[in-house]
Amino acid sequence: MTLKDQDKKQNLSPLEKIRGPLPQLQEGDLVLVQKKGSLIKYLVRRVTGGYWDHAALVLLPKNPKKGYFHNIVIESVPGGVEVHKLSKYLENPKKFDIGIKRFPNLSEEMKTRVKASMLMNIDAPHQRLKVSKFGFALASKSYSGKMLSRQRFSTSGLIQKAFYEAASWEGREGIIFRDKFASPLELEDSTTPQDIAICTKCKWIYNKHEA
Question: Of 33, 35, 159, 203, which residue is least crowded by CB atoms under 10 Å?
Fold first, then answer.
């Protein structure tokens, strides 16, 4: 290993040392998160059948030449919709894992509209569901769908809402994560991290996990 390679490795976050260095991120990239050691998040993964239990959207990518020294994401957390540094997930691999997907050929105009839609929801409340609700969901697939549709302002649903509203009528088909939905309202309310993970319209660029 050269001295230059050693310097690069030293600058990697703890998670990057395990998963590999992050690619250069772009506005509108989709960040999928697994939180370890959380009962609620474990139950989310069980109910949705996936590896991931949370999602975030890249709002401002790292670009030292422009003075941006951190990747900034927007996400829905228990306190509401907030903006954070992506490093909060990268610094603790014992607690978090992340993967990243991207819609190819996303126009700058589309990125701007998506970001604006997400920012309009800053401080919007997040309704968390009780552990007992997940127990019923594990026992009943029909109840599982109803339960997920009542969890307003999960980040995956919020991201779907932002892309759906930002796209033209003709372009909406290319930014819908789920294959089956009854209405735009259901689509926005019940989209899960697993829907984003398995969607073939957006491509994996980091740490692919679909199940």
Answer: 203
